[in-house]
Write a structure and sequence with these properties.
3 strands; about 80 residues; GMP Synthetase, Chain A, domain 3; alpha+beta; about 25% strand; 3 helices; single chain
Length: about 80
């Protein structure tokens, strides 16, 4: 599984989400996910939404996934400088 496939699964599984996924070995991944669906949810709940969108790939093709999860409003306020 490659980063583009993972991003596509996340975006298909979470309405309105945008995902940017990177990996150096196609086993360990890092994902930045921005979605309106995260509003009012704690970090754990946000992570669970992402994991659910990936289904059986988690723990199989995806050995590890580091997540950064934001609502669009939160992401707009993140310093990227």
């Amino acid at each position: 599984m490659n980063p583009q496939q993972i991003a596509a699964l996340i975006q298909a599984g979470i309405a309105g989400a945008t995902a940017r996924v990177t990996s150096e070995d196609n086993v360990h991944f890092e994902a930045l996910v921005v979605a309106p669906a995260f509003a009012g949810k704690r970090a754990l709940q946000r992570h669970q939404l992402v994991y659910a969108s990936l289904g059986a790939a988690m723990g199989n093709e995806i050995h590890a996934l580091a997540l950064q999860v934001f609502t669009p409003e939160e992401y707009a306020g993140v310093s990227r400088g």
